[in-house]
Amino acid sequence: IHDFDTLLWLNPGAKPVEVFAMADALVRPDARDKGFLDTAVVNIRFDNGSIAVAEANFSAMYGYDIRGEVFGSGGMVTMGDVRRSSMTLFDATGVSNDTWRRDTDHFVQAYTAQLASFVEAARRGVVKNAPTGADARNALAIALAAIESVSRKQPVPVS
Question: Its family (predicted)?
Fold first, then answer.
């Protein structure tokens, strides 16, 4: 659902109207019967005409991988990097980088800033630039539509 939060934040004011999702247990096929689907692609259409795609796999063996890109008629911006630093080792075994292994390592500054913002809001009783209940509902609506879409194997409207 964090990916859906991010897509909504990157597309301010837009409302999701349709979702088409595919998912399967590709890493752990033995978990399929228990409802655990480890690989998914979710396409979201918004009321402003934009289209977003979220991809997820719960088994990136090379490290904690989270990236994004936004592109349109004015250009493109990309963010995220699985590499922990730009240092790269080139040797007889190939090329390698140290990678992020956990989200708590990768996002320590973001989590610290989030906690500091919460403490400040609690102290002053004022919340600035905070997500709203509507933001949470929109992300949940996408998630529920994605589950329904996987089950029905077709696009579904977001309600």
Answer: Belongs to the Gfo/Idh/MocA family.
User: How does pLDDT run across 70-95, given as a tens digit for each residue?
Assistant: 888 888 888 877 777 778 888 899 88
What integer is the mean pLDDT of 36-45? 95
pLDDT at 67 over 90: no
- Global pTM? 0.79
Given a contact cutoff of 8 angstroms between Cβ atoms, the answer to whether 26 and 58 are in contact is no
